[in-house]
User: Fold O-methyltransferase C-terminal domain-containing protein from Eucalyptus grandis.
Amino acid sequence: MEPWILHDWSDEESVKILKRCKEAVLSNDKKGKVMIIDIVIGDESEEDEASMGIKLCFDIMTTTLVLGKERNEKEWANLFQEAGFTEYRITPLEGFRSLIEVYP
Assistant:
């Protein structure tokens, strides 16, 4: 699965996708993690103007073109909790995306 995909989906559909991912990482008595590369809209004081502008542009595009959305950390955390995950870690990457590691 393309790692940069959940922003294309509504919260309800994203939870369904994450639940399936959780099933997969726990299958065959294995314990893994889900790795997501996506945008995390952050606190304005933590972002430079260019990065914030790109993130907001993507939010407008995903909202109007595919009915998805960009999410802030609290919104991501709510999705993970609803899908049954217990822990996550967000690491900003170069540019405007972040690596999100989600653990069952």
DSSP finds three helices and five strands in the chain.
